[in-house]
Design goal:
By secondary structure, the chain is α+β, with helices and mostly antiparallel strands. The chain has 3 domains: about 110 residues, no CATH class; about 140 residues, Jelly Rolls (Sandwich); about 70 residues, Phage tail protein beta-alpha-beta fold (3-Layer(bab) Sandwich), CATH 3.55.50. The chain is about 30% helix and about 30% strand. Helix 1 packs antiparallel against helix 2 and helix 2 crosses helix 3. The protein is elongated and about 75 Å long.
Amino acid sequence: MDQETWKLVLEYLAVKENPRSSNTEIKLLEEKLNDWAGNDPYRMEQLQEALALWQDTAQLPDDGSWKESFASIKEQLNQTPIRKFKILKWWPAATAAAVIGALIFFVAGNKKPLTITQSPVVWTTKTADPGKIISVMLPDSSEIWLNSGSSISFPQNLKHADIRTVKLNGEAFFKVKRDPAHPFVVKSQNIQTRVLGTSFNIRAWKGYKPEVTVITGKVAVSRDSAGGQSAAIHLLPNQKVVYEIKSTSLVRENIDDAKASIDWRTGKMNFDRTPMEDVFQTISRKYAVKVVTDQSFKNCELTAKFDNVEISEVMKTIGLTLDIHYTINKQIIYIKGGKCN
């Protein structure tokens, strides 16, 4: 997407949100954007991402020369939380031009045009085997730690992509390299997380409620299903969002210590009224074992904390808590009996 197209996108946002704009003006700009996108799915996706990303992750640039222009926009944003982008009712032509220039600088970075590559995207996948935790350095210098049984996929040209998109299955901790000109997007189990540069944990195991926890910075999380996205929920440090599968809604929560969500990096396991089915899955991944039971623990929960201890210590605690009998034979744990407290 070149600078002229970015300018058109930003002009469209300004006109669309201006109460004095006519329907004719809005329609004309929409037609121009549609003409640019045409029938190209890639361009259409770029356009939709650009509109959403600007609204969700707009921040003041480091270059002080643009702060005055951005201050007026930020003030409008703070005063109108529902409408993400709103211009002043009147702007002198020179001021408007300066703001458009500032926005292009913010998006394009040092005024270097963003380009569309026609070559096919080649993806790379990294996987942490059961019982293993691995670190991955992405081409853009972002750091990722993958929990056991998790995988991350990313394009080889990630460093030069207009939007740095990766795909996660499982759980990972991210330390994203800040690059305002190229926002970072994580797609994982029906949710999408957008950032510019921050650290956060995503837990998105198949069949379980996905959740995003913020350690530092700010992220925007939206529901991403059947090609459509919901309005984004913004998270700050010590906040998390959980995707409720049944209601397909995102629920934001305040938490005491977000860093506890990444204790798994040092081998720790924290369970807080966690269903036993989830506990057994976590044990299976961490210790590369298979858990076999002779009854259902569907209504049982566990509250316990384990440091990086041997599997025998974990099972001893669970045995006393749930009154179970267990045997460990190579990589299989057999469980008999048990009752919920």
